[in-house]
Each structure stands twice: as structure tokens, then as C-alpha cells.
């Protein structure tokens, strides 16, 4: 391609063009890039030849927001362009990257760091769940079914991640999602009562696993697996302490014989060890001749509650 040029002083013009500290670009009538100076290519961090043949879409005169693209349109940037020289054959434009680009780049970096952080935490959680599931499994089938069920509980939380980061996860919705996974309906087999509580996603993941274990065990050994059995879940805020506490009571009632002693496994460890470690709370299990109860107490701090709550 032959670059259109003035007839007089072209070499001086090129020297000024290339030496200008302001990013500049020469485009043809079809908006194709014919030349770019070092200030622009250094700013982009690419070799000058990569821009040749790219496009800068900008009005024939005046100033306007423009779009620069190269590498067959695979790379692009938004910028502010002003036409310095206009001829029938070419235009010389000075460009400046807008604040919008800087903000978008910063936002992308933030999102990338956030995704990387959550991915590391997710992988760590999956590894921990697998190890603890394997430690309490007596067969491959037992390991597979329980591990997949626990992954499903995490997946239900992760599917609401975008909304949860901004607004938090409602405790009521979290419990209903876990019960729905076992085809348990509110108002028939399960009864929920408590104020609106919005949880952080990290806390919600731990509690979702806890309610998954309680639901799974109730189906196998307790009220949800018997005719007429019911689960009552109540939660309330206890503000009589120096630090307000969220109290949660899971209670199973059944007209059948008292529930058999349930094996101590992943769910027990989750309630008695994981909740204290991750949420500074406590979990206790209480068997009586007439009912099975689980008490969970959690400090109502920023570790538990979403800022919007």
C-alpha cells in the first residue's frame, strides 16, 4: 500500500509525526490505519506494524469519541480523537484514551481478582469436602452420592453469586433451596419462621452445606423420611448479648418411633467444628425421645451479614 503524502516537506512531516509526544495516527479515506507514531504504539504496548491495516473510525473533521481496532478486529480500544490535518487522501488524528477506558480497565482487573479469589476458595472448599466425605464413607457408592450431593449444595449458592454479591442471600431462600432439592415443600413438611436475614456469600455457603446435611439426614433417618413427619425451622436475633447473636433452631417431629441414633459424620463435623471455625459460632445436636433438635448460634457481625442487612 502506498501512503498518500504531501508533495512538499514530507520527510520533515514524518519526522515531526514520529517524534511527537502525543499519540497520533494517519488514516486513509476508508478509515484504515496507514501509520502510527511511537507514542501511540508504546502506549498500547505493541509493535507499529500491528496497527497498520487496522481501523480508526472518526468523523472527517472536528473531535469525537472514536474506536481503534487492530489485529483483524480482535483488539480494540475506545478513545478520544481530534483531526489535525484533513486531505482528500488521508487524515492525521491525535488520540487520547478516555477516562471511560481507564475505569473499564480498573473494573475488569477488579472482577478478575475477585474471580481468582473466589475460584481459589471454591477449589479449597471442594478439596476439603472431598477429604471429609472420604473420611466418613465406607464405600465408593457412599462417597460418590454424598460428595455429589454436597457439590450440588455449593452449586446452588454459586448460581446466585452475581445477585448475592450485591444484595446478599436471604436465609429463608437459602433454606428453601436446600429443602426443595429433597422435594420438601414449605407449609406441608417444613415450616419456616424468622425475620429477613441477608447473608454474605461465604457464610451462606457454610450454612447451605449445614442445611443440606440436615435435610439429607432427615430424609434417611428422621422426620422427613416418615409419614406425617415435620421439620420446624425458626431463627431470631438475640440482642441481649454484648454481640447480637443469630439463633437458629432446627427441630424434627414425628409420630413414628424415636429416630435411630444417627452416625457421627460430615454433618456433625460441619455443625460442631466448621461453623465455630468459619463463622465464630456454635452448633449443638440434641436427641430427645420425642424430637431431634439442632441449635446454631452465630455472631451477627460483618463476617455473617451482608452490608445491605
Automatic annotation (TrEMBL):
SUPFAM superfamilies: PYP-like sensor domain (PAS domain). It is an enzyme of class 2 (transferase). It catalyses: ATP + protein L-histidine = ADP + protein N-phospho-L-histidine. Its EC number is 2.7.13.3. Keywords: ATP-binding, Kinase, Nucleotide-binding, Phosphoprotein, Transferase. This is histidine kinase. Residues 115-196 form the Signal transduction histidine kinase HWE region domain. GO terms for molecular function: ATP binding; protein histidine kinase activity. InterPro entries: PAS-like_dom_sf, Sig_transdc_His_kinase_HWE. It holds the Pfam family HWE_HK.
Amino acid at each position: 500500500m502506498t501512503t498518500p503524502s504531501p508533495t512538499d516537506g514530507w520527510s520533515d512531516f514524518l519526522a515531526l509525526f514520529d517524534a511527537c509526544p502525543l499519540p497520533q495516527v494517519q488514516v486513509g479515506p476508508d478509515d484504515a490505519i496507514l501509520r502510527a507514531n511511537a507514542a501511540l504504539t508504546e502506549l498500547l504496548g505493541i509493535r507499529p506494524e500491528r496497527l497498520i491495516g487496522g481501523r480508526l473510525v472518526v468523523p472527517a473533521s472536528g473531535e469525537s469519541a472514536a474506536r481503534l481496532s487492530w489485529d483483524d478486529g480482535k483488539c480494540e480500544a475506545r478513545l478520544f480523537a481530534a483531526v489535525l490535518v484533513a486531505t482528500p487522501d488521508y487524515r492525521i488524528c491525535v488520540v487520547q484514551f478516555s477516562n471511560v477506558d481507564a475505569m473499564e480497565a480498573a473494573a475488569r482487573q477488579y472482577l478478575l481478582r475477585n474471580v481468582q479469589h473466589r475460584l481459589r476458595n471454591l477449589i479449597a472448599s471442594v478439596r476439603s469436602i472431598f477429604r471429609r466425605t472420604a473420611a466418613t464413607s465406607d464405600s465408593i457408592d457412599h462417597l460418590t452420592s454424598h460428595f455429589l450431593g454436597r457439590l450440588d449444595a455449593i452449586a446452588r449458592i454459586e448460581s446466585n453469586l452475581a445477585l448475592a454479591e450485591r444484595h446478599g442471600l436471604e436465609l429463608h431462600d437459602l433454606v428453601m433451596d436446600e429443602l426443595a432439592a429433597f422435594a420438601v415443600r414449605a407449609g406441608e413438611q417444613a415450616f419456616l419462621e424468622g425475620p429477613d436475614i441477608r447473608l454474605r456469600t461465604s457464610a451462606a455457603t457454610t450454612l447451605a452445606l449445614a442445611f443440606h446435611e440436615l435435610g439429607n439426614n432427615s430424609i434417611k433417618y428422621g422426620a422427613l423420611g416418615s409419614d406425617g413427619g415435620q421439620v420446624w425451622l425458626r431463627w431470631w436475633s438475640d440482642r441481649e448479648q454484648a454481640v447480637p447473636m443469630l439463633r437458629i433452631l432446627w427441630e424434627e417431629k414425628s409420630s413414628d418411633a424415636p429416630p435411630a441414633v444417627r452416625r457421627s459424620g460430615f454433618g456433625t463435623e460441619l455443625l460442631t467444628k466448621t461453623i465455630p471455625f468459619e463463622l465464630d459460632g456454635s452448633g449443638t445436636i440434641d436427641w430427645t425421645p420425642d424430637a431431634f433438635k439442632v441449635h446454631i448460634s452465630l455472631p451477627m457481625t460483618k463476617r455473617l451479614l451482608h452490608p445491605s442487612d
